[in-house]
Amino acid sequence: MCIFKGIGSQETHVRAFKSQMNSLDIPPIRWMSIFPSSLGLNERKWFNSLEPNTVDTWDRIVLDFTREYHEDENGDKT
């Protein structure tokens, strides 16, 4: 599994994660519990700091993750 360590495109990481889950026939309902294991230590700390019960869908995880690790057109984190 590829690990996101705050460097590179968060969108690429999400696409790679989904591809890996699909290739392993893991249903989307389980992606939410597996996704944190695809994050580096600092990124996992961010994930664990999210308010309980606010991240209740896969789409919400992707939204929060891409907002937190957004890159501008130059590849710089914003």
Descriptive account of the structure:
- The protein is mostly helical and 78 residues long.
- Helices cover 51% and strands 0% of the residues.
- The chain contains four helices and no strands.
- The mean pLDDT is 88.
Count of runs of 4 or more consecutive helical residues: 4
Biggest β-sheet description: none
Shape: globular
Instruction: Give the C-alpha Rg.
Output: 12 Å
* Chain-averaged pLDDT: 88
Helicity, as a percent range: 40-55%
Low-pLDDT ranges? none
Query: What's the helix-strand series?
Result: HHHH
The computed structural class is mainly alpha
Portion in strands = under 5%
What distance separates the N and C termini? Answer: 26 Å
For the secondary structure, the number of strands is: 0
